[in-house]
Design brief:
Helix content: under 10%
Family: Belongs to the FliW family.
Radius of gyration: 17 Å
CATH superfamily: BH3618-like
CATH architecture: Roll
Strand content: 25-35%
CATH topology: BH3618-like
Function: Acts as an anti-CsrA protein, binds CsrA and prevents it from repressing translation of its target genes, one of which is flagellin. Binds to flagellin and participates in the assembly of the flagellum.
Number of domains: 1
CATH class: Mainly Beta
Order of helices and strands: EEEEEEHHEEEEE
Shape: globular
Keywords: Bacterial flagellum biogenesis, Cell projection, Chaperone, Cilium, Cytoplasm, Flagellum, Translation regulation
Subcellular location: Cytoplasm
Number of strands: 11
Subunit structure: Interacts with translational regulator CsrA and flagellin(s).
C-alpha cells in the first residue's frame, strides 16, 4: 500500500508495519491506523498516521537512552492489547531547536503488540518519569567544549 507523508513523501508500506490503535492516541482519538517507519540511521522511527499525512510522531527505543527505564504494564492494558508474549515499547521524542534540549516522553510510552499489530499510548500513573525527560542526559556544556 502506498501512503503520502508530509515528511518522507510517498512510501510503500507493508501490512506488518501497520498498527491499529483502537482508541487512537490521546489528543488524536480519531487516528486509529498508523504505520511504523524505521529510519536507517539510529534508533528512531516515525509513527505515521494512515489517515492524515501531516500527522507523524518521532519514536525511539527508550532503553537506548535510559537503560534502567522500567514500568509495570497494568493488567487491563495488557489484556486490551492482547499481549501474550511479544511486546515493544517506544517513547515519543520532541525535538528542540537546540538538539541537546530534545526530550522523551517516558511518562506515557507507546506499547505495541507486534503479534496482533495493536498499539496504545499508556499513561503511567504514580510514576516519577516525566513527559520531558532529556534525550541526552550527559550532553556537553559550553565550558566542556574544546576551543581552538
Amino acid at each position: 500500500m502506498n501512503i503520502e507523508t508530509s515528511v518522507l513523501g510517498v512510501l510503500d508500506i507493508k501490512d506488518e508495519q501497520i498498527y491499529h490503535f483502537p482508541k487512537g492516541i490521546p489528543g488524536f482519538e480519531q487516528e486509529t491506523e498508523f504505520a511504523i517507519i524505521e529510519l536507517e540511521e539510529g534508533p528512531f522511527a516515525y509513527l505515521q498516521s494512515l489517515k492524515t499525512e501531516e500527522l507523524a510522531f518521532l519514536l525511539t527505543d527508550p532503553f537506548v537512552f535510559y537503560p534502567g527505564y522500567e514500568f509495570e504494564l497494568p493488567e487491563a492494558e495488557a489484556e486490551e492489547l492482547e499481549i501474550e508474549q511479544s511486546v515493544v515499547v517506544r517513547a515519543i521524542v520532541t525535538l528542540r531547536e537546540k538538539l541537546e534540549e530534545s526530550t522523551l516522553n517516558l511518562l506515557a510510552p507507546i506499547v505495541f503488540n507486534p503479534d496482533k499489530r495493536a498499539g496504545k499510548q499508556i499513561v503511567l500513573h504514580h510514576s516519577t518519569y516525566s513527559t520531558r525527560q532529556l534525550l541526552w542526559r550527559n550532553s556537553p556544556k559550553k565550558e566542556d567544549e574544546l576551543s581552538c
